[in-house]
Amino acid sequence: MPWERRYIMLLALDFGGTKHTAAVWVPGEAGWRAHRRAFSPPGADAGYDIGTMLALAREALSGARPAAVGVSFGGPVDFDRGVVRLSHHVSGWEDVPLQQLLETEFGAPAAVDNDANAAALGEHRFGAGRGLDSLLYVTVSTGVGGGWILAGRPWRGAGGLAGEIGHTVVDPAGPLCLCGKRGCVERLASGPYMAQDWLAGQEEEGEMSWPGQLRGQGAATGGRGEREVTGAMVAEWAAGGDALAQKILERGAWALGVGIGNAVNLVNPQRVILGGGVTKAGEAWWAAVRHAARETALPEVAVEIAPAALGDDAPLWGAAALAREAGNQ
After folding, report:
1. pLDDT tens-digit profile of 53-85?
2. DSSP class of residue 76?
3. Dist CA 295 CA 206 (whole Å)
4. Which CATH number fits domain 135-308: 3.30.300.20, 3.30.420.40, 3.40.228.10, 3.40.1350.10?
5. Interacting residues of 205 by C-beta distance below 8 A, sequence separation 6+
6. Can you name the CATH fold of 10-127+312-326?
7. C-alpha angle 24/160/146, rounded to 5°?
8. How many angstroms separate the CA atoms of 124 and 120, rounded?
9. Burial class (CB in 10 A: 0-12, 13-18, 19+), 239
10. Which pTM does this prediction carry?
C-alpha cells in the first residue's frame, strides 16, 4: 500500500554502467524507505537502461508519487539543462533530456548530475565530508571520475565538466586511453584497464598462467577474453603474490596518487574522499596512493585521503540530496 501522504518522499536514481538503483527517502530518516537494484546485460543501450530504471522506481514507490527526483548518472551531464551528454560505456545516451523525461513521468521536479558530482554531494551531506567546507571526491571503479565541493556547494565548472581527474595525464608516454590521450589516471588505475593490462602481460609471455583456483578455469575455457578477468581479480591475485598483478595494481595506485597530488596543489581542499570498487583493493593499495599523493603535493599542502563513508551508495545519497534541493525540501 502507498505510504501515508504526510510523508515527503523523494526518489533517488543511480544510473551506472552496468548497475541501476532506485530508492525512496524521507528527509530526516537515516535509511531508505525502499531500495531496488538491477543489473544490465552486455550490450544494453540507453533505452533498456531507462526502461529498467523506470520499472525499479515504480516498484520502490509502490504507487506513491514523489515530491522530487534526483539522479546520479555515470557519464558527462549538462546539469543546467538536465541533459545527459553521453555515456562512455553504454550506447544511445547522446543528448538525452533525462530531466524532462523524468519530470513528465513522475509529475515532479527533477535534477540530474554525473555520478562523481552526486557522490561528492552525498558524502558532503551524509558521509565522510559532513561539516567540511571543501572536498574532492574521487570514484575509482569502471572509470575514474571526480567531484568538487567548494564553499559548501558542488562546483561543476563552466561547462559542467569540473572534476575529470580520471583524464589527468600522469604518464605522457603511457598506454592509450579511450579519451584519445596517453597515460591518463583512468587508463592506469581503473578496474577494467587493470584487467586488460594483466591479460596483455600474460599474452606477452606466450601462454596464460592463471593464479590460484582460476588456473584450471582459464585452461578449460581456452579464452583470453577481457570479461574473464576483472579489476577485483587483479587485486586479489596481487594480495596472493602474483607479480604481474602487483605491478599493475601498484602502477594504478601511483597514477591515482599523482593525480590527487596535483589536484590538491591546485585547489587545496580540506579532504580527498575515495570511493568505488578499486578502493577495496587493500591496505597496500591505500598506502601507495597516499605515498604518491604526498610525494606529488607541495610540502606545505595538507593531503588528507579518506575512504567514502557511504560506500557504493554515495552517488545514490547524492541523488537524494539533489532531489531535496529540486523539491525545496
Report:
1. 999 999 999 999 999 999 999 989 999 999 999
2. -
3. 37
4. 3.30.420.40
5. none
6. Nucleotidyltransferase; domain 5 (3.30.420)
7. 70
8. 6
9. middle
10. 0.88
